[in-house]
Amino acid sequence: MKKLILLLSILAFTLGMNAQNETFTYPNNVGDELSGQYIVIEEKGTPQENYSKVINYINKTYNTPAEVIKSQINGEYLRIEGISDLFKNLGYQISTKHTLEFKFKEDRIKLTVLKLQEVTQGWIITDYCTYGKTHKSNGKIKKSGMNYAIKVIDGLNVLSKDIKAGIAQESSETPDDDW
């Protein structure tokens, strides 16, 4: 069992190193945490074009986009706060308020996790996705803590994949003037 946990830890660490900035990673080193992690979305376009793609994606995805957008600087910065069923815990879907930040550069969008908060109880989920919560002081993995972090981070990676796909769809859509 210990060998399996060690193997999974090494595999997760290796994948995290090879997929740097493409997916959110599990806390495997002292000081690691989910809050502040970011991924880079490779998307052709100027900062203004990519900003518009994200705004269009938000307008199409969220019921009340005006309430989701919390802060914005046209073509540079966007912060949103949405709610999604990010992951399951003990068989129940966990409704999660996610606060995400977008920054824009030529052909790139930086997506940063600022905060994840459970909606009904209000506890901060990102606080449970830290090295201190997933590992004992001697460096061994706390099984329940790591399992929880894995669920959260896997759910966040699915959300980021959906965001990437939505932005790519905005890029590929052409206006249908012949309707």
Structure description:
This protein is α+β, with helices and mostly antiparallel strands and 179 residues long. It has one domain (2-172): Alpha-D-Glucose-1,6-Bisphosphate, Chain A, domain 4, CATH 3.30.530.80. Helix content is 39%, strand content 27%. The chain has helices at 2-18, 47-61, 65-68, 131-134, 143-172, and strands spanning 38-42, 69-73, 77-89, 92-105, 108-118. The longest helix is centred in the last third of the chain and has 30 residues, at 143-172. The protein is globular and about 55 Å long.
Main sheet specs: 5 strands, antiparallel
Arithmetic mean of pLDDT: 86
For the record, the CATH class is Alpha Beta
Share of residues in helices:
25-40%
Q: What separation lies between the terminal Cα atoms?
A: 62 Å
Give the strand line-up of the largest sheet. Answer: 1-5-4-3-2
Structurally, the number of domains stands at 1
- Helix count, per DSSP? 5
Give helix and strand order, one letter per element, not per position.
Answer: HEHHEEEEHH
* Spans of at least 5 consecutive residues with low confidence: 3-8, 13-19
Question: What is the count of β-strands?
Answer: 5
Multimeric state of these chains? Answer: single chain
Query: Looking at CATH, which topology would you report?
Result: Alpha-D-Glucose-1,6-Bisphosphate, Chain A, domain 4
Q: Which percent range describes the beta-strand content?
A: 25-35%
The structural class is: alpha+beta
| Molecular shape | globular
Question: In the CATH classification, which architecture applies?
Answer: 2-Layer Sandwich
CA radius of gyration: 18 Å
